Request: fold
Amino acid sequence: MKSLVIYYSKTGNTKLIAEAIASELKADLFEIQRQKDIKSSGFRLYFRGGFESMTKKNIRLEKTDIDFSKYDLIFLGTPVWAWRLNPVVRSFLKKVKIEKKNLGLFACCAGSAEGVLTDMQDILKNNTVLGISEYVEPLKKDKEANVKEAKIWAKKILQKAKK
Reply:
């Protein structure tokens, strides 16, 4: 079964989880990239990123040409900005067409990702979501435990996809 892990990460948290899943499942990895990256950090990053999330700003992206027909299982990861779906991932989902696929959705946040994971499921309603998972600041809060949890979760999703 061929798998793909798609993610966007500004601070490295989502990248950590995406890479853990990809290495565990020997999956292909695709990083969504903005054409113009946010150069800010700290408060300025949170302010600008939060504004983009709250206003659902459409972000220009680098290449998005993925042949989804090659994959049986797709994992999609996003950071949470201002309690909302990251604008880069939202823009990606508007641009590409993912349909009739088995999905695993994950989010990295500082608090809760429940609303974001629900939004992702709504956007991807023409697919089968086999599971969702959230990771609270995995680089800061027990990195090894978060990586282990992501790998276990990914294997469970793979087993569901095989049924």
